Amino acid sequence: MVSGFRLQIFALALGGCLAEDSLCSLDSTCADEVTLLQGMLSRVGQHQPMSAEEEAEVLKEMQEAEEGIEDMSLVALSEAESQPASPGSWVFPANWNIQASSSWDSNYGAANVVAQGGRPWHSGRRNAFPEDLTFDAGEVITLDGFRTAQPPSGWRGSAMRAFTFLKSNDGATFTEVLQGEGRNLAAGETQDIEFPAVSARYWRLNMRSNHGYHRLLTVQYIKFRLAAAAGCEGIYEAEDATIEGAVEHSNTRSAGHQGFTGRSFVDYVNSHGDFVEWTVSSCRRGSATASFRYALAGGNRPLQVLVNGQEVDEALSFPACGGGDWKTWCDVSVPVALSSGQNTIKLVARGQSGANMDSLAIAMDPGATEYVGCFVDDRARDLGQRVGANNNIATNTFDGCRTACGNHRYMSLQYGGECFCADSYGNGDQYVQVDDSECNRVSEPCSSNSHNCGGSWRQAIYEINAAPVSLCSCQVTNYLGHLPPMDTQGPPETVTTVDEWLPVRGGISSLDVAGNCIVRVATGAAGAGEQAHRYPQGGHAYPMPTGNDNIQSMRLECV
After folding, report:
1. What is the pLDDT of residue 35?
2. Is the pLDDT higher at 142 or at 60?
3. Strand partners, 522
4. CB–CB of 366/398 below 8 Å?
5. How far is residue 544's CA from residue 482's CA, in Å, rounded to a whole number?
């Protein structure tokens, strides 16, 4: 009888599971009966130092690959530094700070990914997954895609397979943008990974497996696709707007008119008909605040406010700024309802000349950046039980509902302020997204304090907490012999493989499962003869309900 083995599985579960990773070759990892688990040595997170033979093989591969590399790095870098940073363009991260979790040596560092030619980035001799490339753009940018390229020759099977792309605003806490599986790229081939536009300063590409090149990765270069920032929040100068009757002030060096922003400001000249009209694009539908910066030495000069041709205020007050001069600037604000896409905001003189107009500032109301869209609901309630009615002042605004929802990933406002919380939405085919115009309920205080308050059986859904980035890290220690004694055979092996049947040689004696996981076992290979019993978190001693020496495969799952 072949001796059983004791498996200790320590699972660190942060809320979910990684994608499936490839098994290593049985011939390369499992030599005899003393080896516990066939094929598990190449798992993500395992540290398996390279043998001298493996390292020699990699060095030979490098030498052969470099014969096909044209040293274009300086040219590519020059091109990258001069390329336009406009929405829709693919750009090299040439002026960014880039860090790799490991590199083979200084010739194959992370900085190589900014150039289309030259050497690639090559992960290090630690020969382990995962590997990270972390990018600091130096400022907040908006992306909707990235592109990876394979070296023009050699390193077959070294392209990333399972990956997670993440973002951060502080460089310390990263949240997931998307997970996926990269293709087994041929020499010189590229792949584009696309996702909804998202903004951040720091970005990380976490790579958890490859397509068979040892446990090593290469990336020839990476490009990022810039996207237009979502929404139209920002400052719009008056001198850049459409002006009629009024004029752009020409004497910008006048000591009595300093303190303006931009290149100048606009003077209203006539008492009737003069106007300044701003056109703002890429807006999301919802409530916003329009603030006008102006200077006025004395009195009050009201102006008519029009949004998309509709009167918002017949005579918005522009009182004196209090300095008794024309170099003291102040602001006045008005709530506005913006349509999706392009909007116009117009200030018209009605009866007297206007103040000196410097700029318009648009600020979307609370929830604008978290807004997902307008969705159908019904009596079954997609997001579950209502947390608060639309007359509950604790929950009937975006901020109030968000507080009530706590750590839930999503919240919704419905029918002018009803509050709902959940960790998912679209939990049925009937809960489809509809046009924002169907979330059209106007109700206070919700409307003045929320981006969108939903409608009748229509809910404005917001993502208020990021999806957790999760790993299941499993440490497997193999022992020879039944209890007692337990004679340790070899160092612990660490894996991060879930949702995949793994071969077990010689059965099991006991299981220690830590973390939010279960272990399933089977008497045949690849899950054949799966046993009904599941092993949850905790210790499971010999003898086990499923038997011991008869177990030939096991599967770890997060729950």
Report:
1. 30
2. 142
3. 530, 553
4. yes
5. 12
Residue 30 CA to residue 431 CA, distance in Å, equals 50
What b/e readout covers 168-205, taking b as 16+ CB neighbours within 10 angstroms?
Answer: beeeeebebbebeebebbeeeeebebeeeebebbbbbb
Q: Name which of 16, 86, 83 is nearest 226 in CA terms.
A: 86
Radius of gyration of the chain (CA): 31
Kindly give the pairing relationship between strand 97-100 and strand 329-338: unpaired
CB atoms within 10 A of CB 326: 22
- Tell me the two tokens of residue 294: 């102006």
Predicted confidence (pLDDT) per residue in 358-402, tens digit: 999 998 778 887 889 999 999 999 999 999 999 999 999 999 999
pLDDT, the chain, mean = 80
Q: Are 47 and 123 in contact (CB under 8 A)?
A: no
In a 10 Å sphere around its CB, with 0-12 CB exposed, 13-18 middle and 19+ buried, how is residue 145 labelled? Answer: middle
77: helix, strand or coil: helix
- Nearest Cα to 162, choosing from 45, 47, 28? 45
Q: Please state, in angstroms and rounded to a whole number, the distance separating the CA atoms of residues 497 and 471.
A: 9
Give tens-digit pLDDT for 473-485.
444 444 433 333 3
Q: Are 511 and 533 in contact (CB under 8 A)?
A: no
Instruction: Decide: 412 and 460 in contact? Cβ < 8 Å.
Output: yes
- C-beta of residue 478 within 8 angstroms of C-beta of residue 36: yes
Q: What share of the chain is helix, strand, coil (3-state, %, to 5)?
A: 10, 40, 50
* Residue linked to tokens 């209090």: 322
Closest CA to 320 of 344, 352, 294, 291: 294
User: Does residue 3 carry a pLDDT above 50?
Assistant: no
What does DSSP say about strands 7-13 and 511-514: parallel, antiparallel, or unpaired? parallel
Q: pLDDT digit string (tens) for 167-202?
A: 987 888 888 889 999 999 998 899 999 887 777 889
Question: Which range in 85-89, 447-451, 468-472 is most confidently predicted, on average pLDDT?
Answer: 447-451
Domains in the chain: ranges and CATH = 7-45+470-558 (no CATH), 52-226 (2.60.120.260), 234-364 (2.60.120.260), 371-463 (no CATH)
Please, which residues bridge with residue 11 across strands? 474
By the 8 A CB rule, do 118 and 76 touch?
Answer: yes
pTM, full prediction: 0.42
Among 155, 152, 130, which Cα is nearest to 59's? 155
- Distance CA(407)–CA(425), nearest Å, equals 15
What is residue 172's predicted lDDT score, i.e. its pLDDT?
86
Beta strands in 339-381 (DSSP E): 341-350, 356-364, 371-376
Q: By the 8 A CB rule, do 208 and 44 touch?
A: yes
pLDDT tens digits, one per residue of 285-336: 677 889 999 999 999 999 999 999 999 999 999 999 999 999 999 999 998 9
Q: How far apart are the first and last CA of the chain?
A: 35
Per-residue tokens: 347: 């200030």
d(CA 179, CA 163): 6
Q: Which two tokens stand for residue 50?
A: 């390279």
Is residue 165 within 8 A of residue 224, CB to CB? The reply is no
